[in-house]
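[[Local backbone shapes]]
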Amino acid sequence: MTGSPIFYSYQGEGFPYWNQPKILAVLFDPQNGLFMYSPMVLLMVLGIIVGWKKKKAQFLSVGLIFLLSTYIFASWWAWWFGGAFGARSYVELYALVSIPFAFLIEKILTFKSLTLRYLFLLLYIFFNFYSVRLSYLYRAPWDGADWRWNIKKMYEIWSHLFSW
């Protein structure tokens, strides 16, 4: 089709934000920010931190992979990775960060305080509810200026999230 066995289809695309990566946007922006659409990943990151503090070497490597991936994603010209629901660029990392997440759950289940265990369970349930409920609002594509949040849009989203 192109007349060549190798064809680079990403002409004009690259990493213009290499020196000023959009890290906060990749993690928190309404346009596909990781934590905005997948808040459970916050608990996975907490698992990395807890595991690292417990001197578990494998958690340091998982944390470094997560940080390096975040830096690379935030340096790409389309740091939001197009019209999608959430940060699709992290999907391949979920299997890796599920290990620290399981470690965190194990640690929390060993707490003597039932209050802390139930608080964690409530947070876990809320994050799942939030993600699933938010997915019902998905209208493809979530890309561009039409999906910029403001106070009015946030009210609309939250009213849908908690309407019964």
Observations:
- The two ends are 53 Å apart (CA to CA).
- Helices lie at 23-28, 34-37, 40-53, 57-75, 94-109, 114-135, 151-161.
- The chain has one domain: 23-161.
